[in-house]
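Entry 14. Ran structure prediction on the chain below.
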Amino acid sequence: MTFRSRFSRDRLWTGLAALALFAVAILTAIGISKRSPGPGVAILGSVLLLLLGAATLLIFRLWSLHSLAYWVQRDAIHIHWHGEEVIIPLPDIRDVRPAEVTLRPAWHRWPLQWVQVDAEKRVFSYALQPPAECLAIVTDEEIYLVSPERPDDFVAAYEQRRAFGPARKLKPVIYLAPWRQHWLLHDRLAQALLLGGLWLGWLALSYVAWRYPQLPDTIALHFNTAGAPDLLSPRRSIFLLPGISLLIGFLNAAIGFALYEYQRNLSYLLWSLSVILQIVVLFIAANLMTLAVGG
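Output, structure tokens:
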């Protein structure tokens, strides 16, 4: 028998918050399209990225919240959440009763503030409500907090299936969906290099946009050995530097992603080169713009 988690108002507020963030992001994008490059565009561009990132995170967490379900079967209670399946064999369960533990909500994970692990108390909470409104599945080793929409029916289903006796012997285990085992979720170095390269690329693009109004109509993009400019171009050409470096960064990220499981060190090398490239481009762009304005 399957039980959904009790309805949480956080689900509604999360959806509304995500829609509001997307709406503001659209308005911000429209505002950027109507402006010339400058400090305003650089600031609005950063705000746009933050809005899109926050809205995407809320949608992802809303999906996680919606995925929470409890299955009471003859052999075990199964908890499904966020690509995770927790199996609690019925013979291991000593009691299913109203929870008597206390947990502090992890507000930074809203709306999943009650889905957490307290290693000290050995409490695993898979609930969308405070502990006082949850059921506790008590074993010799752990306590699992759940918040089924019909608690009495949940307890009755557990007692009924326990009375039948198990058809097979299971072990307590947690299964993870393939995407939860993906290397990108566990390799901190890969995350740092990929995000670092993208952030530095965006920083270079924002810096160029910020100083763009100060530039003369024509700027020097190259100098000969004597230090004299030998390549003049319209000032908009300055965007080629961060644009090309960002494109190379995306290509390196994609190639490294494809090669990771076969040549991990090569992937690290490609991502590291992207980070170095973004730093070099930022330095070159800053020097060119300083020379152009006579700084």
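Residues 182-295 form one domain. Will compare against last week's run tomorrow.
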